[in-house]
Amino acid sequence: QDDLILKAHKVIYTIIKENNMCSKEELIKIINLQTMQDSEFTKEWIKIQEYKVDIDEGSIDKMVSDCVNNIKKYKLEESRKKIMDKIRKCESEGLVEETLMLARELMDIQKEIGKL
């Protein structure tokens, strides 16, 4: 759940997790009822329902692994952007040690991105 970016996705995930013993039809009804108060949730739920997934059972693990890697990469890219901004700020203020520390951190993040 922490890996989800949009609040609507987190809410929908929580609803699914809390009602995982329900049938698919019951679960859809529950989500429809709980998301219809917020247009953003409704919009995202419609997108999810319209998304057709055609996969064979053997590729599910790979698909999940790819999704997890994409989420990790996205978070690392966001961290990289923040560190770059901090480096620019420190350089403009003449904070050499802070800049070097951030540069090392940036290199570590770039290595992690390269591994994905």
Could you characterize the architecture of this molecule?
With 116 residues, the chain is mainly alpha-helical. The protein has helices at residues 7-18, 24-35, 39-50, 60-93, 96-115.
Write the layout of secondary structure elements.
Blueprint: H1 7-18, H2 24-35, H3 39-50, H4 60-93, H5 96-115
Structural class: mainly alpha
Largest sheet: none
Shape: elongated
How many distinct helices?
A: 5
* Nearest-integer average pLDDT: 83
Task: Provide a concise account of the structure shown.
The protein contains five helices and no strands. It has helices at residues 7-18, 24-35, 39-50, 60-93, 96-115.
Which keywords apply here?
single chain, 116 residues, mainly alpha, 2 domains, 5 helices
